[in-house]
Structure formats: structure tokens, C-alpha cells
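Objective 1.3, modelling of assemblies. Example input:
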Amino acid sequence: MRIITHTCPQCGTIVSANELESSRVMKCPGLSCESVLRFDDLSDEEQEFFVNHREQYRL
Amino acid sequence: MKGVLLSGGTGSRLRPITHTGPKQLVPVANKPVLEYAIEDLKEAGVTEIGVVLGHKGREEIQELLGDGSKYGVDITYIVQGNPLGLAHAAGCARDFVGDDDFVMYLGDNILKQGISELVESFQQGDYGAGIALQEVDNPTQFGIANVDDDGNVTELIEKPDDPPTNLALIGIYVFSNAVFDVIERLEPSWRGELEITDAIQTLLEDGNAINSHVVRGWWKDTGKPEDILEANRLVLEDKDLAREGRIDPGATVQGRVELHETATIEAGATVRGPVSIAENSVIESGTYVGPYTSIGPNSTLEGVHLENSVVIGDSTISTTGKIVDSLLGRGANVGRADELLPEGRRLVVGENSQLKL
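Predicted structure (C-alpha cells):
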């Protein structure tokens, strides 16, 4: 199963695509990091793959 | 070599303790379980650690571990979100691990001997993975490995009816970078998770050698209350315990007792080790604290008989009853009902609590 993640450019915290997709826009969960992370931060190809296989990433 | 420390999961078997915090922060001998894993990784020379977080207790775990500097390690956080399996958690760590090998350590596991031998054993050969094994009495309840004379794994079987060995997989693995491509090829199991045993089995089928290391000494998965008590007993049995706090004349203290410099055992109290008493806690007159007990910070014991138990902290316990084999959550208070009428016990009990009265 393809696992897609995004790394916060400010603090290096790594967030899985399923977490980004569920929030769409989220404050970076890294310690004291003020960055805002978005599902849109993933490449178009990654977003499309995730959306097309969304069920895999749900329990 | 990097470390990936798994700190997700719901902790459902530890409710109600885990209603208010992650299972990895439940203390054993007054230290969160997760800190034992950090120390094991550091001792094995692994100082770059990715901590994988689920939905529960993210902030508490980050608050405790910080950037890792207080442990002499460098921590990166990895948010897995949905608990989609151990192999998914490992896959989330791919960018963190880069081209390295890595140790994967389940954050609610605790073991006596550390992981240095496992890591060294893996590094001595050209292995796809290394797995820690332990002999168990009930192999039908575990994932079991079959190994050849050289210790190479030949087969993995989940909860076999007819186990070929009694060597169970415990929650500590070493992986080469090859595992990431294997994880990409895995499909979720019947329970919707990417299984780490499937990843190891696929590594094996791809022709990779899988090293095994049989762990000597005890190992505990601290997933249930009785496991916490057992781990507490095992750690107190082994740990160097220092008496730094105040012991008043007239107090009886026997055996090995760890007493924080701000903790007090008052005259008329009896403490029989091994026992750990954390900061700002007071053992008052008439109290008996028996072996294999840990009293967390800011707690007061007034006349209770308490043994083989863990008090997480911020508690006042003044019952005249005997409390044994118990796990008390943070801020739990147990008073006395001796003079109250009508006679009987008064309980305010949260969801999923377990009492034997």
C-alpha cells in the first residue's frame, strides 16, 4: 500500500496523507510550530492517488 | 541506524487509565514506559529517533519527550493518524529514515536487557530484518518464528495451532531499507491493517535473510493493568533504589526503597521494599507500604495498607482497608467510610473501571 506523507518545511514533523486529508487545513502538530499544513501541500499526483484510494486509508 | 518508536494506539485495554492519556505514559517504577524505550535506543547507539504518534495523547507525549535533548537524543515526530497497522507506521517513517537501517520499537514494551545485542546481531550480517524473540509458555497465543541452527528465520506463523517452536515475536525489530518497498506492495489484512509480520514474511520470500535474537531476561507488553503491575514488580526488583528523602525517627523502612529527596516517611509508618516513592509524597503514621509498590508524585497515604500496587500520582489515600494488586489513576482518591452511616462503600467510578470489593 502506498503511504504518502508530507514533511513540515519549518520543523520537520512528518504528517501522513490520511491525517492531512481528514483536516484539509491544520496547524502543524510539531512542538511549538506555527506552520499551517494543507492537503493541497501534497503534489497533484499524490492528492489524486489518495482520493482515488481513500478507502484504503480508513479503518 | 535510526530509531522508530511507535507511540500510537488507543490503549483500550488500559481503560479507564487511558481515558485521560496515552498508554505509553503510564509509569512503571515512577517512570513513563516510553522513557525506558528511549533509554534502550540510546544505549544501543541510536540517537536519531522518530516518534510515531496516533490520535491519542500526542500533546502529552511531545510535552514529555520534547526535542529529545534531555535524553541526549534527537526526536522527530511522525503523525500516523489512523492506526492502520505497524507496517503503515513504519511506512510513515520512510522520509525520516532515508537510506538508513532502523530499529522499530513498540513504545508500550519494556525489557530487561535492552536492545544492544539485537542491533549488534543485525549489523554483523547482511540481513533484510532482525527480530527479537522470546521463549513463551503459550506459543499458540503469539506470532511464532521458526529458525534454523544459525538463528536465521525460516518461517513466521501467526498464533499457530501446532507451533514449531515456542519463540514468540516481541515488539522490537530491526529493518533494512528494503522493507519500505515491501510495505508499498502489501495489502491490508482482514482487519484493515498493514501487518508487520506480512512485511517480514515478504522480505523472507524475496530472499532476504532474517536475523533473530532471543531476548534473555524478562519482557513485558504493558497493555493491561496486570501487565503494568508485573512490569513494576520486575523493574523494582532490578533497579538501583536510592533513599534521598526524609525518614523520620520512629518510621520503619526495610529493604530497598527509592525515596525522592522531597518525599517523606513519617514516624509510625512502615515501608517494606522494593518500593519507589516519588516527589512531594508523604507516607503518614499508621500506613503500611508493602513490596512492589510505586507511589507517584504529590500523593499522601494516611493509614492505608498498600502493596503490590501502582499509584500514578496526585492521590490521597486514607482508607483503613487494605489495597493490593491495584492501579490507581492520577488524582484518584480513596477515603475512609468507617464513621459514615449508613454503613457501606461510597463510589464514584468512571467508565471501564474495574473494582473488586
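Chain B has eight helices and 28 strands.
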